[in-house]
Structures are given as C-alpha cells and as structure tokens.
Fold these 2 entries.
Entry 1:
Amino acid sequence: MLLFSCPNCGPRNETEFHYGGQAHVAYPDQPGELSDREWAEYLFYRQNTKGLFAERWVHSTGCRKWFNMIRDTVSYDIQAVYRMGEQPPEGLTAPPAAQAKSQPLAPAEANPTNTSEGV
Ligand SMILES: [Zn+2]
C-alpha cells in the first residue's frame, strides 16, 4: 500500500486519489490568437518525463481538493506535495511545463513519444 499525503487530510491510501495529468500547464493569455497547432499543443501535448515530474492529483474520496505532487516516475518516490497555486519547495527542479513554456516546441521535435496523427 502506498500512502499519499493530502495537504488537507494527511496520509491516506493511494486508492483515495485520482491522477489529473501534468501540473503547471498555464491557460494561454490570449487563446483566441493562437494558431490551431499552438492550441492543440496546449490541449494535448504533455511531457513524458523519466524522473521527477510535477503532476496534479485530486483526493476524490476525501476532501475532493486538487493538489500538486512531485513524483519520481521511475521509483515512484514522492518528493513533495503542495497546494494548487503554490510553487514546489526549493531544491526541487522547476516544473517541466515551466521549462518547456520558454522554449516552444519545434515541429519535428514536438513530442517524439506522441504517435497521434492529425493534430
Ligand atoms: Zn484530502
């Protein structure tokens, strides 16, 4: 049994939680000005990180609140848990989405692990 530490409720069984995808994916400032490709990248392109990854979780059978977690995707070690709107504790790497935001994806390298067609 794996315990997740909800910021509101404390340690609980992982079966009480649901995964919500990559954390820190900001809504575009001017969504109406995005190209179809940029909008598709916002909606569907997510990183598939090997190692530390910032992700969202919801305590669905507890307080029903969303929070962020830094988890190692290889070892499943939970490095940090923090509330929505907060930044990860110092010493941990910046959220992958924040790093990617400053470097737009090149078409050929957009997401080599994504095999979906017709964006
Ligand atoms: Zn909770």
Entry 2:
Amino acid sequence: MSPFYFKFQFRNVEYSSGRNKTLLCFRVDTAGGSTEPLKGYMEDEHATAHAEEAFFQQVLPNSSKEYDVTWYVSSSPCAACAVKLANILQQRKKLRLSIFCSRLFEWEEPEIVEGLKALVQAGCKLRMMKPIDFLHVWEIYVEQEGETFTPWEDCQENYEYYVERLTDILK
Ligand SMILES: [Zn+2]
C-alpha cells in the first residue's frame, strides 16, 4: 500500500470520519517455523465479505494445520465479525489469532462489547497498536518510496485512550 493510504487508514484518531472500511495486514506463521511466514493485506472493498471473514475464505480456508495468525487492522471487528471469528477459533483449535487494532469500532455499542468479549474468551489476543506497531506495519506492508515514518504527534496519546476503552470492555 502507499504511504499516504497507510497514514490515512491507520491513523488512530478517536473519530474516524471517512474511514469506513477495514484494512487488514496479516502474517501467518506455520508451526515450527519451517516455512517463510505468509504476509499480505486485504480490505473490505476488494471482497464481498468483511476483511476479517474474507481472510478465512481466501487466505486460510479450512485446514486442520497449526497456525499462528497475526493481524494489524485499522479498526477492531464489527459485532458480526467478532462472533464469526469467535466461532472459527472454537472450531479450529490449532489456530491462534492475535489482533492488533489501530482504533476501536463503535466501542460504546453493547453488541460490540459482547462480541469482543466473546472473541477474547475464544482465545483471541486483542491489543491496541502502539507507536512501534505502526512502525512495524510501515516497514513490512508499505511501499516506502524512500520515505521514513514518524508516528503522528498524538499517536501514543490515542493509543492510551483506546487501551483504557479496551480494558473497560474486557473487564
Ligand atoms: Zn465486520
């Protein structure tokens, strides 16, 4: 993705006007680390399903193999996706999923709170992205074109804001 696109979609602002889709960067490690991890990204508009669901349809269709999946997402899952992901994790016991989110999506909605709780209960590691995680995504998934990345001024502050929200949701 381009530097501009990354900075627009991933910026961890509190109110994300104009950012109404999810950009999902993924990394899949197979058990034992015998093969190179699989890396890439996807977004809602390239798929009929939400990016989270599309990942399990396109990148990792049903398999009983052992996988460690890491996602960096611009926004946490919607209520429907959270439930779907929780079900997938309950069915595929050898799959481990860690999700690093830039922003929390509609975190005041009761269905979202229930969905995220169910997801964590199903074994998903749910975290907010720290400034260093944004740098990591920049290094791996962005065509940098010689540009260097400095996290925006309020990156740490926004991260702390969202960590508090997430802690409240999960307690
Ligand atoms: Zn969704």
